[in-house]
Write a structure and sequence with these properties.
Blueprint: E1 5-7, H1 8-32, H2 36-61, E2 67-69, H3 75-85, H4 92-101, H5 105-127, H6 135-163
Antiparallel strand pairs: 1-2
Helix pairs in contact: 1-2, 1-3, 1-4, 1-5, 2-6, 5-6
Length: 164
């Protein structure tokens, strides 16, 4: 008996939504923060999220109905949707509202770090189901998310030493 198949394009749609949420959060944080340094870091992160959205759209357009074997129908999408339900934001609007509601720059940075960590976990799962030829692209996105975390933690240290 053949294993059911999952459309990989659905995974990329989820990845695009994650990046759109991150973009909304970072744009909101960049606009709302008083410090020019903080706004610059969040502006940079927003630009990276835009780039990832474009990358995932490009990957999706090149899929040609690529499918992934599953143990049972809906296995992959159930797993990924369950993961998405535990994310920091449930929608782009939620991400924007969360950014606007943050009163403290350190809190914004903590939320951003959590957002990046959760994206890395998701993309690590995605990497298991994309074509071999696309695994390097996913690795690159994961590496960029790690860079975002490092920049955010450096910013947090800078804020701590500045105020301490």
């Amino acid at each position: 008996m053949d294993k059911p198949l999952f459309q990989a394009a659905e995974v990329l749609d989820m990845a695009i939504e994650i990046e759109r949420q991150g973009l909304a959060f970072y744009e909101g944080c960049a606009a709302a923060r008083a410090s020019e340094v903080v706004a610059t870091v969040f502006g940079y992160a927003a630009g990276q999220e835009r780039r990832h959205i474009e990358l995932f759209y490009e990957m999706k357009s090149a899929l040609d109905e690529y499918t992934v074997p599953e143990s049972y129908p809906g296995e992959t999408v159930s797993y990924l949707r369950a993961f998405l339900s535990t994310r920091l934001f449930t929608s782009v609007d939620d991400a924007s509202c969360s950014a606007e509601a943050i009163e403290d720059e350190a809190e914004a940075i903590e939320m951003a770090v959590e957002l990046e960590r959760s994206s890395i976990a998701f993309y690590s799962g995605v990497k298991q189901i994309v074509r071999e030829s696309e695994k390097g692209v996913i690795d690159d996105v994961i590496a960029e998310e790690h860079v975002h975390i490092r920049r955010l933690l450096e910013l947090k240290n800078w804020l701590t030493t500045r105020s301490g």
